[in-house]
Amino acid sequence: MSEEGIVLVASVSIFNGDKVLIIKENKPTALDKWNFPSGHVENGEDILYSAQREAKEETGFDVKLIGTTGVYNFVSSTNNQVILFHFVGEVTGGSLNLEEGVISDSKWIKVNELAAFENKDLREHRVMKQIIHNLLEEKIHPISVFNEQLI
């Protein structure tokens, strides 16, 4: 969702054991950049649902959200103000099926190995490095800090 230059994004570190899934984006604004599965929150969409939807669309995996590393506010490389909600999740179903034309590659990697990536290889590297640091330091807050949308 974007409103007057503010973009809301949901992002997920998907874990399977001690490894996290990263994806290589094939988008004009992020060509060949590694990132966590993420995308825009749609108008009226619950943030938790948005994170699960984006994970499924980009990777093919069903994900249970188990925590959050927090909310990140920054100006993107495309000069938008971004408010990014980053979640931690685990695979509950589905199978790897990368979104065609949008995601060019993926890999399961230990977080400490991801921390060694060059800045130029990461999308929005400053934010990615903050998230990676929080994952390494186990600064993960319970998912209950988010209130699900009441129907």
UniProtKB/TrEMBL annotation:
CDD domains, A to Z: NUDIX_Hydrolase
InterPro entries, per database record: NUDIX_hydrolase-like_dom_sf, NUDIX_hydrolase_dom
Transmembrane segments: none
A Pfam family recorded for this sequence: NUDIX
PROSITE patterns: NUDIX
SUPFAM superfamilies membership: Nudix
Domain Nudix hydrolase: 5-133
Superkingdom assignment: Bacteria
Family (UniProt): Belongs to the Nudix hydrolase family.
Entry protein name: DNA mismatch repair protein MutT
Organism of this sequence: Neobacillus piezotolerans
Lineage of origin: Bacteria, Bacillati, Bacillota, Bacilli, Bacillales
